[in-house]
Amino acid sequence: MALSPTAAQRRIIAAADPATGRLKGPEAQLTALVKRGLAFRHPRPPHDHFLTPAGHRIREQPAGDEAPGAAGQPPAPAADGVFSARVGGEDPAPADGPARVREVRGAWQGLLELRRMTRSDGATELPCGWERTHLVQAAALALEAAGHTPATGDGDGYRVRATPQPEAVAVHQPDGTALRECAVTLERAGWQVGEHTDPRTRVRYLLASPRRV
User: Could you tell me which residues belong to the region Disordered (predicted)?
Assistant: First the structure.
């Protein structure tokens, strides 16, 4: 789990370019932010550093509005120190409200910037490498950022789950209309989506994979 950034690192995050998330500062501090999952080093020269979705989330937070625990961590648990979108069924679920809306908005904008900066053509329509290695979180973020309602406990709402298939997640939503709306959102976010029926339960669900072209 990521460590809380130091005061000096917070100043670097706060001073990031508001449009691109580009960072400036001592190399040691930038490297430390990368290790914390709050920044990434661009693979092409001049190898500048940019905020990750988790870094954007911290920059979006008003002073004193940080959730308890390690900085860069949302109210929901995160396995790798980056922003944790709601996958549905969390117990307890993250609190709703303006702070959560800011977190999700900042994470989504950070993800779009990550797409732009890691593609040679600068496009944001297709998922990036981070999304392909964090399939459940990436799909859940696309849904939550678009305003879909995650399941709470055993209640209704979307649930995003891993599958045995490579680069594919399953999205469950008991309401058929809401399920199709989830499909539209994921397709707009650059995912390839198909609707399937579980052969045992006859329940409809989505199978979604990040598009490559």
Answer: 1-26, 59-98
Q: What Å distances lie between residue 76 and 12, 24, 104, 205, CA to CA?
A: 25, 30, 12, 24
Q: What secondary structure letter does DSSP report for 151?
A: P
Phi-psi sector, 157: left (phi>0), alpha (psi -120 to 50), beta: left
Please report, as a single letter, which amino acid is at residue 124: T
Per-domain boundaries in the chain: 7-210
User: How far apart (Å, rounded) are the C-alpha atoms in residues 74 and 132?
Assistant: 21
d(CA 209, CA 139): 9
Per-residue pLDDT in tens (0 to 9) along the chain, 213 residues: 346 788 899 999 999 887 678 899 999 999 999 888 888 888 777 888 988 877 887 887 755 444 333 322 333 333 333 457 899 988 776 677 887 888 888 889 888 988 988 888 888 999 998 899 899 999 999 999 999 999 987 778 999 999 999 899 999 999 999 999 999 999 999 999 999 999 999 999 999 999 988
